[in-house]
């Protein structure tokens, strides 16, 4: 179960000015690109009965198509000869096609059901067979071929729109590649491949999103908070994939969506109980970003992404959040590999320093020191820079450091630190011998003359030791929480729900100054 998605680049786009829609303006149906299937030469629809329709100047229901084994859908580039006869139903066209030696029932956006002869390998072959008053040459265009058990069954010959398939028995789901989906599937040829878009209502979409983003066994009020956050979030993303032919994709940077198979009764109940409800700030739906766990405090949006949003302010948890604690250890060789993969150009790694932290305690500047320079990482780049490593990106930016050379900042000669109120000491040349309390004291130091507090790990280049966590020749990240830290903490929402808070109270805690309606 994936609790939260890393929504970095797209969220930054939204925070920089993407538009939201009101609940009343939410379209009756939304379009979700099923990118989990990618572009494939063939997709398999398991239903043996499909209702087929298309939308061109209004929805047109073209009736039921049937198969013995189910349908495989491929892009088609053959040549055909049109008979010119039009039929009311697929079954009529299918019967007419059976009377020919080589023919197929065709759904055309211009004529409805008809029959083509072929397929032929070339235009010349098609023309050679186009004799008589009722036949003419048909060129290949945006066609899809539906086969039944390997036998061509239906040709879709559309120029300006695409066919949509829903369950032919009424009200059921459509089976695609082993998964089931509510609503309709729109299959689209793309070169020699096929892509698929799921068309369904917003709440049907959320039935699949909520249990993909939050465990279904969590308290109902937490699931309701997730449903409203997800609905508000999706309202700010409408059209972000318009160039691809759909509103959202099924991946984490939109929201994780696994179709009807992943639905749960608790999540459906949460979505239905909050249907149409969103979070608003100043009359507009908010970009209700969320993440897994905060480690005790959430973060201001500008400390993660470019813009300050008035409703995305850092807040302290008010319930006992069961946040994640984590440790990542990098040898210098592993750090070298990360630097190389990111083309850092600072030579071999010699150590890591925390340069600055936010008021909430998250690292806002991480400095990697090398034999040929230094690399400063800022904000979310601190996490994503390590994506190329075996363990992937860092869990959060709420961490301290241990390991060689991680206790000493890049300091000016005049910088001093006050250690546990015992006196001022110069930063440069500082060495820590041994571990325990002396090292722990260096996890937070006041830099005299700067008016700021910086957080460091405890270690010594001279001794190669740290307060129990570090090992000689290694950099140790010890952190808490998971995710970007902005908006609703999902583990925090769980804790609040368990403490008796309602979903609206949960949302108003994490999103400053909002209305829930």
Outline the structure in words.
The protein is α+β, with helices and mostly antiparallel strands. Among the domains are: 33-200, no CATH class; 325-480, no CATH class. Helices cover 18% and strands 32% of the residues. It has eleven helices and 32 strands. The strands form eight sheets. It has an eight-stranded mixed sheet. Strand 10 (143-148) and strand 11 (151-157) form a beta hairpin. Helix 4 (202-213) packs across helix 5 (220-235), helix 5 crosses helix 6 (265-273) and helix 5 (220-235) runs antiparallel to helix 10 (490-498). The protein is elongated and about 80 Å long. The two termini are 29 Å apart.
In brief:
The protein has 517 residues and is of the alpha+beta class. Among the domains are: 33-200, no CATH class; 325-480, no CATH class.
Looking at the structure, what is the overall shape?
A: elongated
Number of DSSP strands? 32
Largest sheet: 8 strands, mixed
Low-confidence stretches: 4-18, 404-413, 428-472
Into which percent range does the helicity of residues fall? 10-25%
Q: Which structural class fits the helix and strand makeup?
A: alpha+beta
The order of strands across the largest sheet is 2-5-10-11-7-8-6-9
**Average predicted confidence as pLDDT:** 84
Number of helices: 11
Gap from first CA to last CA: 29 Å
| Quaternary structure | single chain
**C-alpha Rg (nearest Å):** 30 Å
Strand content bin: 25-35%
């Amino acid at each position: 179960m994936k609790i939260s998605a890393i929504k970095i680049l797209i969220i930054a786009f939204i925070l920089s000015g993407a538009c939201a829609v009101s609940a009343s303006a939410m379209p009756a149906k939304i379009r979700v690109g099923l990118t989990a299937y990618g572009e494939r030469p063939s997709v398999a629809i398991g239903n043996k009965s499909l209702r087929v329709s298309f939308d061109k100047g209004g929805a047109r229901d073209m009736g039921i198509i049937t198969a013995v084994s189910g349908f495989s859908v491929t892009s088609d580039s053959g040549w055909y000869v049109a008979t010119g006869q039009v039929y009311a139903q697929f079954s009529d066209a299918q019967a007419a096609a059976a009377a020919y030696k080589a023919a197929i029932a065709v759904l055309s956006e211009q004529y409805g059901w008809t029959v083509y002869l072929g397929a032929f390998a070339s235009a010349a072959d098609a023309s050679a067979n186009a004799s008589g008053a009722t036949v003419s040459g048909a060129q290949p265009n945006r066609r899809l071929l539906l086969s039944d058990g390997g036998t061509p069954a239906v040709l879709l010959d559309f120029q300006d729109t695409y066919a949509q398939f829903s369950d032919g028995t009424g009200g059921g789901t459509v089976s695609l590649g082993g998964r089931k989906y509510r609503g309709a599937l729109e299959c689209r040829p793309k070169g020699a491949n096929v892509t698929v878009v799921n068309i369904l209502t917003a709440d049907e979409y959320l039935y699949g999103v909520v249990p993909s983003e939050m465990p279904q066994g969590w308290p109902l009020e937490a699931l309701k908070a997730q449903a409203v956050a997800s609905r508000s979030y999706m309202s700010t993303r409408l059209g972000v994939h318009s160039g691809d032919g759909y509103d959202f994709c099924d991946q984490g940077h939109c929201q994780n969506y696994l179709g009807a198979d992943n639905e749960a009764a608790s999540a459906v109940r949460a979505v239905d109980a909050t249907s149409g409800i969103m979070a608003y700030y100043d009359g507009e739906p908010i970009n209700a970003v969320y993440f897994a766990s905060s480690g005790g405090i959430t973060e201001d949006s500008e400390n993660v992404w470019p813009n300050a949003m008035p409703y995305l302010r850092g807040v302290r948890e008010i319930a006992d959040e069961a946040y994640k604690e984590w440790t990542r250890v990098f040898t210098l060789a592993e750090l070298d590999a990360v630097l190389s993969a990111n083309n850092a150009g600072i030579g071999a790694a010699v150590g890591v320093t925390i340069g600055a932290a936010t008021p909430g305690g998250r690292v806002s500047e991480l400095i990697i020191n090398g034999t040929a320079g230094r690399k400063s990482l800022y904000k979310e780049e601190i996490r994503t820079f390590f994506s190329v490593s075996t363990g992937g990106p860092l869990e959060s930016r709420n961490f301290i450091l241990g390991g060689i050379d991680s206790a000493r900042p890049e300091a000016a000669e005049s910088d001093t630190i006050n250690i546990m109120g015992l006196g001022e000491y110069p930063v440069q040349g500082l060495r820590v011998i041994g571990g325990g309390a002396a090292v722990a004291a260096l996890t937070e130091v006041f830099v005299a003359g700067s008016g700021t507090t910086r957080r460091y790990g405890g270690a010594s280049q001279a001794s190669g030791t740290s307060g129990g966590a570090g090992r000689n020749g290694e950099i140790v990240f010890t952190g808490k929480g998971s995710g970007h830290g902005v908006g609703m903490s999902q583990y925090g929402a769980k804790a609040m729900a368990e403490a008796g808070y309602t979903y609206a109270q949960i949302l108003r805690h994490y999103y400053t100054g909002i209305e829930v309606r």
